[in-house]
Fold these 3 entries.
Entry 1:
Amino acid sequence: QVQLVESGGGLVQPGGSLRLSCAASGFTFWRYAMSWYRQAPGKERELVATITNTDGGAGYRDSVKGRFTISRDNPKNTVYLQMNNLKPEDTAVYYCKAPLPYWGQGTQVTVSS
């Protein structure tokens, strides 16, 4: 079955960096665009970044442009999210997703001094 396992979250000070990973299985990874979403307490889940399955083109929500970078390694069935210059408002549970009806457990990112 489809599995998405996110990792790499943690507690970091403002201005710090984290690299999230998502290991995917149970579907033909290279055929699908992949996305990262996040959900902060009391807020709706929001799309953070998407990477295509073809040319690796990426799109980002405005609030993370220039700070976050999404990438993928198709042979490893893994998608990454490099997060730099983190801000307290980036605090959330981060999820990866393919355009399929499955979610992983997410990984908690907390930005606080």
Note: The chain has a mean pLDDT of 96.
Entry 2:
Amino acid sequence: QVQLVESGGGLVQPGGSLRLSCRASGFILANYVIGWFRQAPGKEREEISCISSNDGSTYYPDSVKGRFTISRDNANNTLYLEMNNLEPEDSGIYYCRRVTGDHYGQGTQVTVSS
């Protein structure tokens, strides 16, 4: 059974940092394209990062490029998202997603506010 469990969200001031984790079970994380999405109130869910299964290449939209870093710990079957220089516009629920089968976790809330 595919399961994704996110953690690490919270309240942070503008300019601060957070590290999100996504623990995968029921499959080998390294064998799939995995990404992070976020959904802000009143907005559609948007992709903010993904990592490929073969060469580990990554993707970021311009809105987070240079501030967010996706990584994968194969030994622990866990995906990470390092977020730096956070802005209020980064607030929302963050989900990890396995592209194949369109599996999402339950999400973790990130709030950037002073």
Note: The longest strand covers residues 18-25.
Entry 3:
Amino acid sequence: VQLQASGGGLVQPGGSLRLSCAASGSILSFTAMSWYRQPPGKGRELLATIFSGGITNYADFVKGRFTISIENAKNTMYLQMNSLKPEDTAVYYCKGVATIGMKVSWGQGTLVTVSS
């Protein structure tokens, strides 16, 4: 199952954006799915994870601003980002860990730029 991230773009500080990560097959094949980001010149950092039972975890620096969710019927994971800051500027990636074999799949990045 392949993943494709989309929804990035230019947004003003304080604005909102929703990223999507579409699976080519059943998203239920993943036991956990996550969003990561890589700011310019920095390493990739974990933002949020959602497990197959619906439990979610967030990095402290996005807690309360970002929401991870899955829509099974559309085989799509989302990241709703509110109150965006310039420091949220990064390439955002989605990742899935398959239930069988724990295979890791990454989507291609989508660029989010927060600037006035």
Note: The chain has a mean pLDDT of 96.
